[in-house]
Design brief:
By secondary structure, the protein is mostly helical. Helices cover 76% and strands 2% of the residues. A hairpin with a 2-residue loop joins strand 2 and strand 3.
Length: 474
């Protein structure tokens, strides 16, 4: 649940439509930059230095990509807190958007120090922008139309995800990598410019923090944030100089990500009046859903590398950039969403079904990888996998949010929605770390192992659905 309009400074008058369209434009450009960069990142990391890449080993590159993705999920919690208590939603969007644009520009320089610095800036910026945009959308749309507004935003995200890999992929793979990152920087800069032009439409919405901290507490928060940023800067510098090994840092960040939702749940239990059985059932379902995101998040890493190295991408004499295949998934989402969202199946049935299709997708990948040992395979294999991904995402994503909102005690809804994202981050980082298994397992065996494991998780959810449902209010 997002803050009601009063918490952001009051509902809008006649300018509500203009405000909504302004926010929609910002989100379109922000997601363009995010998906555009994500489509080329692993390909850039693994490209040889002679071709302008970083020459990183695939297993390290996928772990770095997964860590980056998971941290963008996690950053929404402190980012949302800063927007609510210190900055206000408007300043959070402006500051976060500027950090994202600068981060992409820094990435375009093409060196180890700028790589880590750029990713760090994008993570911090995304953590500020995403929850603040969501809060302002909730304010300008009003309670009755809020669900419809977020539905439109979800579909527009898919438009950005569809177009961004085409633009950045063509520039990065066919011209120069730094141009792909520069295009992502341009996208976020365009979104910021649009936001600045449309600020008048928001009147008082988002101008001030929803629940401002006392002045002394603000000073303490700024000092702590400065300490954290300084520690991050020292770590990034040490990794860039080779003082700290990158795999060890990624492993430590991965373990932190795995522990965070459980530590956060433990903290929440001390503060909220809730029966332990619903909370335990909620934790079990969220833990199971992480298995879906574990597979889903490998689209930009394991599947991107498979597309580049093991598929025949020639069509009518044109060699299709590997990054373009990542546009297939959002295309399917746009086509399937109107049909799938009408399903009246229970939340647990949806979770089990999504896990089933995710597991099946990697079984398909196992067959494709086996056939690829004899030579490049058709891109149709990846198209089938993305079709399964898309179906699973459309089913699981809203089901997880609905479950989190239903289980949350009064006054804790936003924090439970944040937990949903934290468990997704767990799955993302697990997928990146598990790709290291390809050092000892053939690629077909890797895909088959993960696919059957996720199928087993989905089967377990289906088998225990009746017992879990008895403890859940949905």
């Amino acid at each position: 649940m997002h803050p009601p309009p009063a918490e952001l400074g009051g509902a809008l008058g006649p300018g509500a439509r203009r405000g909504f369209l302004t926010l929609l434009g910002v989100d379109l450009w922000e997601r363009f930059s995010f998906y555009g960069m994500s489509a080329i990142l692993v390909l850039y990391l693994t490209a040889p230095p002679a071709n302008g890449g970083m020459g990183m080993a695939p297993r390290t590159a996928t772990a770095l990509f997964a860590t980056y993705m998971s941290l963008t999920f996690m950053a929404g919690l402190p980012g949302g807190w800063l927007a609510d208590r210190v900055l206000g939603a408007r300043r959070a969007v402006l500051l976060g958007g500027a950090l994202i644009a600068v981060g992409h520009a820094v990435l375009s320089v093409g060196s180890a120090p700028t790589l880590y610095a750029g990713l760090g800036l994008i993570i911090v910026g995304t953590g500020l922008v995403k929850p603040s945009l969501a809060a302002m959308v909730a304010a300008v749309s009003g309670g009755e139309k809020r669900e419809e507004a977020f539905g439109r935003f979800y579909m527009c995200i898919q438009v950005s995800a569809l177009l961004a890999p085409v633009v950045t992929g063509l520039l990065a793979e066919r011209v120069a990598w730094h141009l792909g990152f520069a295009a992502a920087a341009f996208g976020m800069a365009a979104g910021l410019a649009q936001f600045g032009v449309g600020l008048r439409a928001f009147e008082e919405v988002g101008r001030a923090p929803a629940r401002p901290l006392p002045r002394e507490a603000v000073r303490t928060a700024v000092e702590r944030a400065a300490m954290v940023l300084a520690a991050v800067a020292v770590t990034v510098t040490a990794v860039a100089l080779g003082v700290l090994p990158l795999p060890a840092v990624l492993a430590l960040l991965g373990l932190t990500t795995l522990a965070m939702p459980f530590l956060y749940l433990r903290t929440l239990r001390r503060r909220m009046p809730v029966d332990s059985k619903p909370l335990a059932a909620f934790t079990a379902v969220m833990g199971a859903s992480a298995a879906f995101w574990m597979i889903f998040a490998q689209s930009g890493s394991a599947l991107a590398l498979f597309a580049e190295r093991h598929t025949d991408r020639t069509l009518l004499g044109f060699d299709i950039p590997a990054s373009w295949l990542q546009s297939v998934h959002p295309l399917f989402v746009l086509l399937l969403a109107p049909l799938v969202t009408k399903s009246r199946a229970t939340v647990l049935t949806k979770v089990a079904g999504a896990l089933g299709v995710a597991g099946l997708s990697f079984v398909v990948m196992a067959v494709a990888a086996l056939r690829a040992q004899a030579g490049p395979v058709s891109t149709a294999w990846l198209v089938v996998v993305y079709l399964l991904y898309s179906f699973g995402e459309i089913v699981l994503a809203p089901a997880g949010l609905a479950l989190a909102a239903a289980v949350a005690p009064t006054g804790f809804t936003s924090r439970f929605l944040g937990l949903n994202g934290m468990f997704a981050a767990v799955g993302v980082v697990l997928g990146g770390q598990l790709y290291r298994l390809t050092a000892v397992l053939p690629l077909p065996a890797y895909f088959l192992l993960l696919g059957t494991a996720v199928l087993a998780v989905g089967t377990t959810v289906a088998a225990t659905a009746r017992r879990l449902r008895s403890h859940l209010p949905i």
